[in-house]
Design brief:
By secondary structure, this protein is an alpha/beta fold. The chain folds into two domains: 5-222, 3-Layer(aba) Sandwich (Rossmann fold), CATH 3.40.50; 227-293, Alpha-Beta Plaits, CATH 3.30.70. Helices cover 34% and strands 27% of the residues. A hairpin with a 5-residue loop joins strand 1 (5-13) and strand 2 (19-28). Helix 3 (95-105) packs parallel to helix 5 (137-149). The radius of gyration is 24 Å and the shape is elongated.
């Protein structure tokens, strides 16, 4: 079964010779949240801009809801809502009129009941008669989301939607995103807040230098590439790591009261049992142990580093 978005061998090269995208293929299922991660200039915004019809590709194809963005662009565009990085609003227009106007741009008739529903879901109803210039940065971003939802799209693109938003408001906005997913909206987002991608996304795609490095379910990515760190708290401080344990990759805390040991969760043997046995044999008494899973940011940096090494090799 085809996804709501089908991207095949998509490429984009600018007149200057810069390759923004290179042979990108991706299928996105209806109702999922997929996070696109990558360093600045990796090609994330270019990919979104092509799908939304704002940039013309130099190769490949994109279909949205079965409609080709080149030959059936009007039907494809009706299915898409876009929340851009930049806040661009008419400063003297009211929130309500701003959202109504955007709905009209898609050829949709007036539907104040729907607009009210959208504004209430984004906690904007109380600001409906306020000029957008009077709003905080976080509220302005909510208006951008409301405008993107004004014509009831099936796909919503969020390009760095929480940039510059405080932590509390960011959490509230992600609750809105989760509700949109429950309503059946497919969401594609780019973000630099990797902990949010880890928490919210069903799948994660990594883009670097115009290439789609990988796309995996978030949990699978964490399990496959994640490493764990074992922290061993000691009863008495050590001045150095015992010779018997030298070369095992142990790190001694500055105060000498803890040892850190990294291990691969996929390995047949983690070496933990042997390590604890050797510590006991050395007369080192363990007070407590704890583990910490690598986060998505660490995994992302590893993937990008490995990919660049392969390219330059």
């Amino acid at each position: 079964m085809a996804g709501i978005i089908e991207i095949e061998n998509l490429s984009k090269q600018y007149g200057s010779g810069t390759k923004a995208l290179s042979d990108v293929s991706l299928s996105i299922e209806e109702g999922e949240i997929i996070a696109l991660l990558g360093p600045n200039g990796a090609g994330k915004t270019t990919l979104i801009s092509i799908i939304c019809g704002l940039v013309v590709p130099t190769g490949g194809s994109v279909r949205v809801g079965g409609h080709d963005i080149a030959t059936d662009w009007r039907a494809a565009r009706r299915l898409i809502g876009l929340v851009p990085q930049e806040i661009a609003l008419e400063p003297f227009e009211t929130v309500m009129n701003s959202v109504r106007f955007t709905r009209g741009l898609y050829g949709e008739g007036r539907d104040d009941a729907w607009i009210e529903q959208v504004l209430r879901s984004l906690a904007l109803w109380g600001k409906r008669d306020a000029a957008t210039k009077e709003l905080s940065g976080g509220m302005k971003r909510r208006v951008l989301i409301a405008k993107a939802l004004s014509h009831k799209p099936k796909v919503l693109f969020l390009d760095e939607p929480t940039a510059g938003v405080d932590v509390a408001l960011r959490r509230e906005m992600w609750q809105v995103v989760e509700q949109l997913r429950r309503d059946g909206v497919t969401i594609i987002l780019t973000t630099h807040y990797l902990e949010e991608a880890e928490e919210m996304a069903d799948r994660v795609g990594v883009i670097d230098r115009g290439r789609l490095v990988l796309v995996k379910p978030t949990a699978e990515l964490m399990g496959e590439f994640g490493r764990k760190t074992l922290t061993i708290e000691l009863d008495a401080p050590l001045t150095r790591i015992p010779d018997r344990l030298d070369g095992r990759g142990l790190r001694l805390a500055a105060d000498g009261r803890a040892l850190a040991y990294d291990y691969d969760t996929r390995a047949e043997r983690t070496g933990i049992a042997r390590l604890l046995g050797d510590l006991a044999a050395e007369g080192v008494t363990v007070r407590d142990v704890s583990t910490r899973q690598s986060n998505l940011e660490e995994i992302f940096m590893t993937l990008v580093s490995e990919t660049r090494q392969e390219v330059t090799a």
